[in-house]
Specification:
By secondary structure, the protein is of the alpha/beta class. About 45% of the residues lie in helices and about 15% in strands. It has 4 domains: about 140 residues, Resolvase, N-terminal catalytic domain (Rossmann fold), CATH 3.40.50; about 120 residues, Hect, E3 ligase catalytic domain fold (Alpha-Beta Complex), CATH 3.90.1750; about 160 residues, no CATH class; about 80 residues, no CATH class. Strand 13 and strand 14 form a beta hairpin.
Length: about 550
């Protein structure tokens, strides 16, 4: 009789009740174990590995236990997947088709102990697709019902939860004014009415010691109590909640809570904010002396191996943060096919790399001695002192030093594996107070080898002589993962670990996965030689393959 290896998969959408000694996942597994036992005469045997996803939605395949199960099926370790109900496996018809592809490729099938069908037959697949369609329909209808309820409640002016805005306290389905925090909001509005710029409001708020609200997270950790950022101040000034209104997407409704700021005054202030935004775009806002300052200091001076100029470009994240790049001009002109050999370099990283190279070049004794010719012994000593001060920025701030060093650049040439930088004789002569004709051309050029690696659509440059710096956050998280795993082996649950460590249960679940990283990968993290894209954030948002060879293949492309 052929042995059929069975794996049980369980899932629960919410974390509620998972801390109980016998929870929903245990009940599902018990029912599945009983079913497998009933099929013992057919050769069914239970695999010891547990595939449990607690607190994860069935609307996505990005579930650690499910991904481990799919990997084991691909490796030929599983013949039959047993679930309590089909919606425990997935609630998406599209996702199920992907799972079926894995099952077919592995010659495996699956069984629902409460729904009788066989995926090996056409009728079984039809029945299954119908059940999945209803499961997906139920999920979407539930989501629509919740969205409609929120929209209807907000039309009535009700507060529907979330972070309570500073200046208010929750009061059932509405808000009431916080006596302690309301003066902070009124002060911020008063400062803007007086100064008309968020920049000055931020400065004055810091002088007065105004702080953000202190909130207690679900983990028990306190957050807040810090100085206001520019974005936070702008959000407060533009939030209709303070005028006694409730916003829902693009619409604003009268609220049932009292207004902290008179609605007429609030509307007038919005006009001032819009006018301030127009002034900033026209170049007379934050820089009252003229147009906006150049934000890409190397514009027009960076070229690639084809002679194509790298043009400043930028994108914005969902949170509105501006990301700057230098991009080969051929990648952004026209509508033809993109050149795969084009460059897309993060601007801050390229500027920092150039500044570091120029700083090192100006500090070389041979350059300091021979860059000006002819020169007396006394003049050479003075020039060396001036160049050292210029390189170290002894007389100005770090930002001013960076701007000064970048202003020396005449041309930056990027070729695969090499960067060449030319310094303009006129600029260095002005700093040394000598005639440009006395500057030696042979000491104005420098170059360095580098390694470059693709990270999404952008390219990261690493100097060949640069030693990798250890990602302390990643290494600390790996150490925590081993600590949590030892606690699990001692019999503690995720909830108990989270309470003992002052962390959320979800974070503990995410970090524990790092225990299964290959030893050489962990060693690389310790030595600072891990792939550029291998960060805690990346590992948190991606599934880690259980096989070490698969990990190495996946991480090598980062």
């Amino acid at each position: 009789m052929k042995k059929i290896r069975c794996a049980i998969y369980t899932r629960k959408s919410s974390e509620e009740g998972l801390e109980q000694e016998f929870n929903s996942l245990d009940a599902q597994r018990e029912a599945c174990e009983a079913y497998i036992l009933s099929q013992k005469h057919e050769g069914w045997v239970l695999l010891p590995a547990a595939y449990d996803d607690g607190g994860l939605s069935g609307g996505s395949l990005e579930r650690p236990a499910l991904q481990r199960l799919l990997a084991d099926m691909r490796d030929g370790h599983v013949d039959q997947v047993v679930v309590y109900k089909i919606d425990r496996l997935t609630r998406s018809l599209a996702d199920f088709s992907k799972i079926v592809d894995v099952l077919d490729a592995a010659g495996a099938s699956f069984v629902s102990v409460t729904q009788s069908f066989n995926t090996a037959t056409s009728m079984g697949r039809l029945t299954l697709n119908m059940l999945l369609s209803f499961a997906q329909f139920e999920r979407e209808v539930t989501a629509e019902r919740i969205r409609d309820k929120i929209a209807a409640s907000k039309r009535k002016g009700l507060w529907m939860g979330g972070n309570v805005p500073l200046g208010y306290e929750p009061d059932g389905r509405t808000l009431k004014i916080s006596v302690a925090d309301a003066p902070i909001i009124r002060t911020i509005y008063g400062l803007y009415n007086k100064h008309r710029t968020v920049r000055i409001v931020k400065t004055e708020a810091d002088k007065q010691g105004l702080k953000t609200a202190i909130r207690t997270l679900s983990s028990g950790r306190l957050k807040g109590g810090t100085a206001f950022s520019f974005g936070h101040i702008y959000h407060i000034l533009s939030n209709p909640i303070y005028a006694g209104r409730i916003r829902h997407k693009t619409k604003v409704w009268p609220g049932q809570h009292p207004a902290l700021i008179d609605p007429v005054d609030w509307d007038a202030l919005q006009e001032l904010l819009k006018a301030g935004a127009v002034r900033s775009r026209s170049g007379t806002g934050r820089n009252p002396d003229g147009p906006k300052k150049q934000v890409s200091p190397l514009v027009g001076r960076v070229f690639d191996e084809t002679g194509d100029r790298l043009t400043p470009s930028h994108t914005k994240t969902k949170k509105g943060r501006r990301l700057r790049y230098y991009v080969s001009h051929r990648l952004i002109r026209g509508s033809g096919p993109k050149d795969p050999g084009g460059w897309r370099l993060p601007a801050p990283e390229l500027e920092t790399l150039v500044v570091d190279l120029v700083r090192k070049h100006l500090s070389v004794p041979a350059v300091q001695t021979n860059i000006v010719s002819p020169a007396t012994t006394e003049e050479v000593a003075l020039i060396a002192k001036q160049m050292t001060a210029l390189a170290k920025g002894e007389s100005c701030s770090d930002d001013e030093t960076t701007k000064t060093l970048l202003s020396l650049i005449e041309r930056v040439q990027i070729t695969p594996g090499n960067i060449q930088i030319s310094i303009t004789a006129k600029a260095i002569a002005e700093h040394l107070a000598v005639e440009p004709t006395r500057i030696s051309d042979e000491h104005l050029d420098l170059q360095s080898d580098f390694r470059h690696r693709k990270r999404g659509v952008e390219t990261k440059l690493i100097l060949a002589d640069a030693t990798g710096s250890r990602d302390e956050t990643l290494f600390k998280n790996i150490a925590l993962a081993h600590r949590y795993f030892d606690m699990i082996r001692s019999g503690k649950t995720y909830t108990e670990i989270a309470e003992a460590e002052g962390a959320s249960k979800r974070r503990v679940q995410h970090l524990v996965e790092l225990v299964f990283l290959a030893p050489d990968i962990v060693r690389g993290v310790w030595e600072g030689g891990q792939p550029i894209g291998l960060t805690s954030h990346w590992l948190k948002s991606h599934v880690i393959p259980p096989m070490w060879t698969a990990q190495r293949d996946q991480f090598s492309s980062l």
